[in-house]
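= Paired protein data =
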Amino acid sequence: MSDILVAKIGGSTLGAHDTTVEDIVALQRRSVRPVVVHGGGALISEWLEAREVPTRFERGLRVTDERTLEVVVAVLAGLVNKRLVAALTAAGGRAVGLSGADGGLFKAPLLDERLGFVGEVAEVDTRPLLDLLDDGFVPVVAPIAVEWRGETVTGQLLNVNADTAAGAVAAALGARWLVFLTDVPGILGEDGQTVGALSPPRASALTKAGVIQGGMIPKVEACLRAAASGCRSVIVDGRRASALQGAIEDGKGTVVG
């Protein structure tokens, strides 16, 4: 069975109030092979606000015009990515930062013209990730892609939802675990209590009922995509100490699939 763990984390706050960096390094020392896919939405929103660029979302996805894309690429592939690499290195890990545009990692057509420059990961070239893992590095992946139209690369950079990217990476790698570190205990049901396990039919029902909404929708969809490949997909509260290690050991949070 694969020893690969894909962890999706909110890059702009990683390490500020949690033990995620330490968890990743500890797991690497235990021969688990972590791959990090990060977001950075809060910091992107801050930068956009400072530049008086309006922001809106559709089904949890940021609508991305040319001005927004410039900020997204600068924040995700630049500041957030390198902060994470630096934090992992300082904690004793070995990390390499890259984006989905590097080495043709993500093959992504436009998702929906109404969303602007937003891509959907159709294919993941796992070779760069596996090479880094085999060499003992933690790949830290920013969710940026280059647009593909059919078999043609246009050279246009695209914003990719980090949750969706994490699910695609986990499925392509045949990962053993996919863990989403969030700021809630897991998925909450109609009664406001954490759902321990979520099947595809119930996920669909809760989404239609509006119980699962906003940014949780792409997380659940990504979990289902990865779970279909045999991956254990978990949504947990990343603010807890040792949350990442606990997600693969003690069953906290919501298991989706």
Observations:
- The longest helix spans residues 66-90.
- The chain has a mean pLDDT of 91.
